[in-house]
């Protein structure tokens, strides 16, 4: 990476004076800046601010927009009066090709070219958008669109490279339109405020909109032009940005937007990661009062420039990775850390616009003061044939020879490149080249020539120059006179970079073509065919070539390149070093990414074609150490990832820490790129200049000794060198030895130790053998190391080799050798490599690096952590650091013995007491209390015993002093068992038996309490002590109580003591004697239950079980016998028989206990089912139907289970059980049961009846149910329509039945349906056709047989006719019908209303009887004699609707059932 500075050049217009810069734009192809000034002129400036005085265009109005045509030297100009012009620029002239005033009549607000340059889009303040076609004749309008408000901005989409480019444009009214050049225009978004910015996010094909109200909107753009809103977010911007908007916005990376909003910061929005952050101007060294008002981004160098209100241009460079996720950054890093500040440049006024030029490092800053051009000057350096040329500043070059002679050359031009050899220096700036002769061994120079040249790169060999100009390689003499040229085709591209090594020249083009030439003759001779800079596997370009270096025999070319990102074509340094092999015509690569480094320069040795040197820098986000951070560097060396080549181990540097690292490597066709050595580049050396075995050369900036340098503080660069590792002490050997050492180093690098040994076996220099021994550590060759140490005369090292062979790991053995050779860093690395952190810990201890030792023990060798702290404490004790020793003894957990020992040895008794008191460690407190007690200091001993919580010792001291009351208080307060025991023994000795028993019990020593209780006849407390004592004591106490006739206590203690046989025998014996009544039965039951229990640990035998059960039965305790049989004996059948025989009520708990466990054995399972059926039968006899149902279900007899459940009357469970069983018989039983309930008032029951009959396919029963439904509708609700529907459902279902009576029933149903239909029709037609209705009713009443009475209530038919006659005034016929009803025994009142009957009697002049129902007896025909229950209309409607619903559901439900 070259050092660089920015130089500012004032752009003076040809007319003189200063004029405000309104707009400015750089050409995309040449370094020419077009500026629109306040003098209504368009002027053109070159890259150093020099005006092209012959290229000035005068305008009729102030220019408002400038835009260069891509790939052409044409610039489009938009004026404030709406004029659109196209100006063609050539060096020395500017011509207006076309001008148009017919389209726009107001200020041009935007002007953008399509990426191909074939179309131009313009917009103005009056709302007109125009698409222009570009040709050699200028601009011609193609299509225009008219909007209702001023247009503000526009942008093209990604897919706009064809003939019909699509674009978006926005307006002040907030409308965003999508259009092309074919007349298609659509409004795609309407926002509430002015559109300030439109940008197209190519990575996600999104349009980004920023409005005046600070609303950022993203819309997705599909290939067909359809758009969809993605997200909207309100931007947080301070100040008055809400009134002026956010207009200064640019892309600063893929999906990364940057904006200058008039604040003291730059705001960034990362659309790809949905994050945002800020970059403050103070980070570039500006004051807090500065405000950013303009912004521009250079994708080639990843520079972002910001112009401020107070006249400063500050710049930052992006050094991060665009593809990295911010989540991968450390906690102390933010996205702002990806930007590093560059030097700030001041101008004379507010910077209102910024624009970057083509190529690298050209920036124009414009404002009211005019325009200033900032040009980046890279400080170059070159080494050739022992002479170095180092650029000091923009126009000065220092020449220094390897002998130390130096001189400065003031060139008078802005140097943009230089080359040197032992006789000449050539510099150039892109417009001219100068040649200087080096004289007097490099102490002076003379200018030999100065000639115009636009060469991009120049190479020098003796008196011949090679110039890369346009599409040719020119070969000239030192005066620039052309001798010949080599042309490059359009497919090959333009030659960009040249490099020469000896007689070999390398050329690379902008299209990645590589050409190598032999220039030893007059005419260059191509070496093979052209190569390409592409991946050898995918044939994809590896990037843009940044620098090249050719080796000494012209077979290889080292290449550094940049990767290109996205549509912005952002360049990012590649972490790979590429080497093109001309013999194989492929590119090999070595990636430094794993070590987080990037190569910045590479140089081949001038003689050895395999030896390559490279300078690498830390990548972004990696924190490097400074000069004063050596300790951190040393600690982190061990964490470096080793390269694949085991011999290429970093020796003096670690790529994870140091900022700059120099790497040497060998490159050949067989082994590829192999790292040979690496070391940190430390101050004052700065940059690698080249390599010339045995030295590497650098630019050094060390303070000069002369007084002028000291007074001014200027540090001039100089040439410095360092000797390669394998040549240390052998700098001045002859060429034969030098070549042998090179072969030795090469073979060591590739791991060929035998060849390495043969290369140097004749050399007697100890340094060579020492280097080889050191390399044996790298290559892990113990055998060769032994030979090397022998040649060195290193006896101790040879002994170390023999001792090292005992280690099981090769790395551990090699590490031991490395220690003897003083290669401690390698020893550390090897111990880590093989995981022998214990040996590494010992190494650090031996070196006295205790902090590292403890860190290793804490992280990797924790088994020795305490040992390490103990040894460190011993070390601190030896040097008198008592406090540190105490801390580490504590960490080693050896302080309880070591700290007292140490302080006793030092006679620091008071300090020891303070340490123990403050530490509050229980063991130490006890120890110190014991020490005080031994010294007779009882009060102090008590204090420390109390603090340590040693209650026993406190009681012991109190008893020793005969303070028994105080001892008892201590025991009662602390509840210490050991203290209670000690006190009890003392009290027993003193004859205090009662108190001794109490404290023995409190201590848990119940055997002593029992002993004393028995001895002194204290039976009242003996039982409680016995139950708490051990089994043997329980048995003794049981025998004691048995002798005294306290049998219950005896039985309990026998049982608890484990002698169950004795306990049972005693129960039986006492029970037969009947001495204790029912009490012994309870004791026996409890005993039996405990036997065989999980807690007892004793199994109860069948004989004992039978004896207990028989004993209960004989004594009438049947329920206890049953519980014992099923709980302990698993005798379920016997227990069930007892329940049956002796009427023992079975509870839920007993029923579960009487249920045998499940078994996989079919025989056992069948036996279980039989037992369950017996149990269910017993439960059924006891009227416990629910429990009986459960047991029948468990036995698999669901039908009997349902029958039991039916007897229980539990309707809810009956329905649930039927649904779960899905059995035909169960369905029928359940439905039959439900019919016995009030189903006509409960819709759910009626629905379940229909469902169960349907699922059981019991169609005859279902038909009967529908018949019953029909009768209910007639009898209770007189709803003949619903009754008819129910009969029809009955008829449908009886048709599905297969029984013998089904035909007869079906015929009867059809007859009834016929009668019902006639009566229903009569009721319906009574109002519309009363004559027909009358005829139907009379026909039904006169119809012989019983069909009518079976189908309808005859009284309803009479009532219908009577009401009809009453309504028509035919009272006589009505009266006659009433008489017929009485004659047929039909009660009148249920069918006729009293007012109607009174009207009939009054109409005939008959007296109204007090009782119309003078006929006794039941009702006739169709239930005519029955009574009708009155019901309100709401219940009638609800029941009717539910019946309809049930009927409809039944029509569609023909579910089959599965018998389980």
From TrEMBL:
Keywords: Cell projection, Cilium, Repeat, TPR repeat, WD repeat. Residues 1448-1460 have a biased composition (Polar residues). Residues 5-154, 165-376 form the IFT140 first beta-propeller domain. Residues 1431-1447 have a biased composition (Acidic residues). It comes from the Eukaryota. Residues 1260-1382 form the IF140 C-terminal TPR domain. Residues 627-642 have a biased composition (Basic and acidic residues). This is Intraflagellar transport protein 140. It comes from Triparma strigata.
